[in-house]
Design goal:
This protein has 778 residues and is mostly helical. Among the domains are: 131 residues, no CATH class; 131 residues; 155 residues, no CATH class. The longest helix has 44 residues. The N terminus is likely disordered.
Length: 778
């Protein structure tokens, strides 16, 4: 029975290794397909007549050294894949496996009880049978009985009979003196004697039955004595292992293992009594003291179990260890994590988790038991609560500072922390931000440093998503700082704080964009790199792991940067829309860009002074001023400044292109567009092309301007007049536009109205005007 039990118990767990924690099974079609492919690869190794030497000879006979190395790598990969497949196969039914193993152990205990009961019943039956024989013999002649009695009295008892008679007293002495090993040897000897006596019939039935009863009685007495000793708080170490081993030798392995684990639990409870969390105690200190006791107890129980039982009760040991880890997690959550999480103390919460995982990792380093997944699963809600509270604190603190921010860009305050990595585009230059943006970035850096050690909890996704939400909230504050930008609130995620200081000047408004662009393009992605496993690992030697991490993280980082940039685009569009509206409409609501301003020119043709319309002159002046400010404000990010100027020009041009009332009046109005109106309109568009070429005008918007010119000339042609014969020559438009540009920008002309022939812009613009007049397009 003992050997059968051992073989079944050993089959319930991997040999030489305690089963680790139960991971989730990965199902799905991909897993099944991979399993089929692996089964095909391993099929050759499963045949009964597989010969390793012949297989190696067949593969390596014609191979060179490089091919042999490749074969070795292939076999190693196949070995790892096979081990992983076996692990997944075991874990997929691990709960049922543990339940079945426990039922088998219980059944073995019941079978042992039945065996003892049957032994007692057998002894009783033999005793009754002997009594019947004696009664039948009593009917014989008295003379024969007297002879037998005299013979018995005359015969000396044998050594065996003497040993049987003295056996109970000897066991009593051994048990009283707690000489366990000798008592076990005596019981084993008696068991063998009973078996031998039954076969050779060297002992009478009565004596044999008495011996069996004595064996059962003292076996139970010794088991109870060992169990009582194992339950004593003073029993530990060698004594505990000896007691468990003795119980196992008595054939009661399940009870022995249960008592061993119970003893370790009682000792753990006793040691934990001196660890008392108080309101003034440090959460990390409490966690460290508690985890030291818990994982030391689990490690010692693991050592004792394997020392005495090997892997026979691996499943029970995993269940017991998991319960201890869960109880530990609940204590840490209640006395250390709860208060930190509620207050947004992410750093304190992270430190508690790190301490616990650190002690657990020391246990896992032995490669026999994994409990980290249990701890991480139970700690995750508290850590997420702390994370969300920390993000909320960043949002509220930034909003409070934005209410008093003057939107003037400055370098970081003296003593403030700065990133230890500088972008290649701004080497040696510290970031210039407004006060609220400096504070926002500083808190984000602290946040990423606190959450970085918690990568094992797979919080990266929720972390960056939460930070994106906070950044969107800050962008909302910047949009609200723009004058007359209330309509943008509907386009932002979440509520927006309206208590923010208005950016009155163009410089202040450009400062809003500088804050957003620098944070989104450089500072936040740089800070988020602290979430990368490569950053955490420092310098790793495994190039394959580096490549895997890079391939995994780069797409996620790119997608996150795109989301940040979309938030900045909302601020940029609000900025451009506000300035475009300021140009198009007056404070009284009058339209500065209406069809009437062109149609009415032919009614008032006296003493015209040709120049681009005021709205387009103001557009160029505004772009010129902003470009000058942006050159100092967007150092290293000139592309953003250029795109911003182009976007502002595009907003004005698209307004004109899509203004239905403007074109209805030009094309279908009661008064048609006259020669002077067309000339003014053509001059305005050529003015835009001239000042915007390569600086304020994108290719797409350039084409829109061309389309607008064609549409206006088509409307003029519909009146029956020829636009080419009406409009002045190309040089006239160039001269008027160039003089206006020089006057607004402050740059002097080369001569008295002479064209600057060496200017690339001048030559390109002149060619554009001439080409359009000749072919109808640029």
């Amino acid at each position: 029975m003992a050997s059968a039990k051992s073989s079944r118990s050993r089959a319930s767990a991997p040999s030489g290794q305690v089963a680790a924690g139960v991971p989730h099974a990965n199902g799905g079609g991909a897993g099944q397909e991979a399993g089929v492919q692996l089964a095909d690869k391993l099929k050759i190794f499963k045949t009964d007549n597989f010969d390793p030497d012949a297989y190696v000879q067949s593969k390596c006979q014609s191979m060179n050294e490089k091919e042999i190395k490749q074969l070795c790598n292939y076999l190693q990969d196949l070995k790892r894949a096979s081990a992983e497949e076996m692990r997944k196969s075991v874990y997929a039914n691990y709960a049922a496996f543990i339940r079945t193993s426990k039922e088998i152990s219980d059944l073995e205990g019941e079978l042992l009880s039945i065996k003892n009961l049957l032994g007692a019943q057998t002894g009783l039956i033999h005793g009754l049978a002997e009594g019947v024989n004696i009664d039948s013999l009593s009917a014989g002649s008295e003379s024969i009985r007297e002879n037998d009695i005299s013979n018995v009295e005359d015969r000396e008892p044998s050594d065996l009979e003497k040993w049987v008679e003295e056996f109970p007293d000897m066991l009593e002495v051994l048990l009283a003196e707690r000489r366990v090993d000798e008592a076990l040897d005596a019981l084993d000897e008696a068991e063998h004697l009973v078996i031998d006596a039954k076969q050779k019939q060297t002992v009478g039935t009565a004596e044999l039955s008495s011996l069996q009863n004595a064996i059962s009685e003292h076996r139970q007495k010794l088991a109870d004595q060992l169990a009582e000793a194992a339950c004593q708080s003073s029993t530990h170490g060698v004594e505990l292992r000896a007691a468990a081993a003795a119980l196992k030798r008595l054939g009661d392995g399940p009870r022995a293992h249960s008592l061993l684990l119970s003893a370790h639990y009682q000792r753990l409870q006793y040691n934990m009594q001196v660890i008392h969390p108080t309101s003034t105690s440090y959460g990390g200190a409490y966690t460290a003291a508690l985890s030291q006791q818990v994982f030391s107890a689990i490690g010692q129980a693991l050592n004792d179990s394997q020392s005495v039982f090997g892997d026979e009760y691996a499943s029970e040991l995993v269940i017991w260890s998991t319960k201890r880890a869960e109880a530990f997690s609940h204590l840490v959550k209640r006395h250390a994590l709860a208060s930190s999480a509620a207050a947004g103390g992410l750093r304190a919460a992270a430190e508690c988790v790190q301490i616990a995982i650190g002690h657990c990792s020391m246990l896992e380093a032995r490669g026999r038991l994994s409990l980290s997944s249990v701890l991480l699963k139970l700690f995750r809600p508290s850590v997420e609560q702390a994370l969300n509270a920390n993000l909320k604190r960043i949002e509220e603190s930034t909003a409070a500072l934005a209410a008093a921010d003057d939107w003037v860009l400055t370098y970081p305050p003296t003593g403030a922390r700065t990133s230890n990595r500088i972008s290649s585009t701004v080497v040696g230059i510290q970031p210039k931000l407004s006060s609220s943006a400096h504070r926002f970035y500083s808190m984000v850096q602290d946040f990423f440093e606190d959450v970085g050690p918690l990568l094992s909890m797979q919080l990266g996704g929720s972390t960056v998503d939460g930070l994106l939400k906070v950044f969107n909230s800050y962008i909302g504050l910047l949009i609200n700082a723009l004058p007359s930008s209330i309509e943008e609130e509907a386009n932002l995620d979440g509520p927006v704080n309206k208590l923010v200081r208005i950016a009155e000047t163009e410089t202040q408004q450009l400062g809003l964009l500088a804050n957003a662009s620098l944070l989104a393009e450089e500072l936040l992605p740089r800070a988020a790199m602290k979430l990368s496993p490569m950053y955490q690992a420092g310098g790793m030697d495994d190039s394959r792991r580096r490549g895997s991490d890079r391939n995994t993280r780069v797409p996620e980082q790119r997608e996150w940067k795109k989301k940040l940039q979309r938030s900045v685009d909302k601020l940029r569009d609000s900025f451009c829309r506000q300035h475009a509206l300021d140009l198009i409409f007056t404070e009284d609501g009058d339209n500065n860009l209406s069809a009437e301003m062109y149609i009415s020119m032919d009614l008032n043709s006296d003493e015209l002074e040709w120049a681009p319309s005021p709205i387009f002159q103001e557009l160029y002046a505004k772009l010129n001023r902003m470009a000058s400010v942006a050159s100092d404000m967007f150092v290293g990010r000139e592309r953003f400044a250029t795109l911003l100027m182009m976007r502002l020009t595009e907003t004005v041009i698209l307004w004109l292109s899509e203004d239905q009332s403007f074109w209805e009046e030009i094309e279908e109005g009661d008064r048609p567009l006259g020669p002077l109106g067309l000339q003014q309109f053509y001059l305005d568009m050529q003015f835009i092309i001239l000042f915007g070429k390569g600086r304020f005008l994108s290719r797409n918007v350039h084409q829109v301007v061309i389309d607008i010119i064609e549409r206006a000339m088509a409307a003029f042609s519909a009146t029956g007049m020829d636009p080419d014969s009406t409009l002045p020559n190309d040089d006239w438009f160039f001269e008027v536009a160039q003089e206006t540009i020089s006057r607004i920008s402050g740059r002097t002309r080369v001569g008295n109205g002479e064209r600057e022939t060496n200017s690339p812009t001048a030559s390109i613009s002149a060619q554009s005007i001439s080409s359009f007049r000749s072919h109808g397009s640029l």
